[in-house]
Amino acid sequence: MNHDFWRQRWQQNEIGFHQELINPWLAYYYGEMGPPPEKRANLSVFVPLCGKSRDMLWLAQNGYKVVGLELCDIAVKAFFEESNLPHDIEESGEHTHYTTDNIRIVQGDFFSITPEQLGPVTDVFDRASLIALPPDMRKQYAEKMTELLSPGTRTLLVTLTYPQHEMDGPPFSVSEDEVHELYGEHFKIDKLAAKNTLDDEPRFKQRGLTELTESAFKLTRL
Q1: Domain segments of the chain: what residues?
Q2: How far is CA 84 from CA 70, 76, 100, 185, in A?
Q3: CA distance 93 to 142
Q4: Which alpha helices (H) appear in the chain, and where do they start and end?
Q5: Residue (of 17, 1, 27, 19) closest to 140 by Cα position
Q6: Exposed e or buried b for every residue in 176-209, given b needs 16+ CB within 10 A?
Q7: What are the two backbone dihedrals, phi and then psi, of residue 90, each rounded to the nearest 5 degrees?
Q8: pLDDT at 18 over 50
Q9: How many CA atoms lie within 13 A of 128 on its CB side?
Q10: Are strands 187-196 and 213-221 parallel, antiparallel or unpaired?
Q11: Calpha distance 79→57 (Å, rounded)
């Protein structure tokens, strides 16, 4: 992962990938269609490459435990400052753990974290991780996720598909076929939904896109 690229994006506040609103797929599948509130405390949702996503706060406020992982300390500190959350900080090797109540964010390189450092998780929410990576890194990412996750772990994966030649990523276009190529050997894959979202994304229209489909998949670790 190009550490300097992402640090520069955060330093210059070039974070168009950050969303102020809660992701609708997350709100639907972990809210309206999710488990009853009394069972959520037993679930731990991993949010890789989490930035300062407000989705983590929504998960915590709705009874889930949350484990985020983010490369840039700027993003992690911003999350806690903007959420007004007091927190503890603990160094652990090349990673730093920021912890408050039922949210823990691990700051450091995704590719160097171990399952022991991550801790047990039951679920994964991947809205902006896989699609943030160029093609040559997506296979490595999927292999790392396979290493980190225990059998039965569920992933809500959100992808974007568009003519890649029309726009430079990130976010990158990831097709349904590629999802199966990356995860098919070690995960059961269910396509949950897909919708045309170009009219909802004027910034992508400005970058030249003529088509944009957002898809949601459920991946279950075998």
Answers
A1: 3-221
A2: 19, 12, 11, 42
A3: 24
A4: 3-11, 24-27, 37-40, 54-61, 73-82, 115-118, 135-148, 176-183, 202-206
A5: 1
A6: eebbeebbeebbebeeeeeeeeeeeeeebeeeeb
A7: -140, 130
A8: no
A9: 20
A10: antiparallel
A11: 9
Q: Which residue has the tokens 């939904």?
A: 193
The pLDDT of residue 204 is 86
Which value, in Å, is the radius of gyration of the alpha carbons in the chain? 17
Using alpha carbons only, give the angle 80, 6, 78 rounded to the nearest 5 degrees. 10
Amino acid found at 183: Y
> Distance of CA 205 to CAs 15, 16, 121, 162, 173, Å?
17, 14, 37, 11, 15
For the segment(s) 3-221, the CATH number from 3.40.718.10, 3.10.150.10, 3.40.50.300, 3.40.50.150 is: 3.40.50.150
**What would the DSSP string read from start to end of 104-140?**
EEEES-GGG--HHHH---SEEEESSSGGGS-HHHHHH
Mean pLDDT, residues 175-194 taken together: 98
Strand partners, 65: 44
Whether the pTM exceeds 0.85: the reply is yes
Q: Which two tokens stand for residue 206?
A: 């400005």
Q: Give me the chain's average pLDDT, please.
A: 91
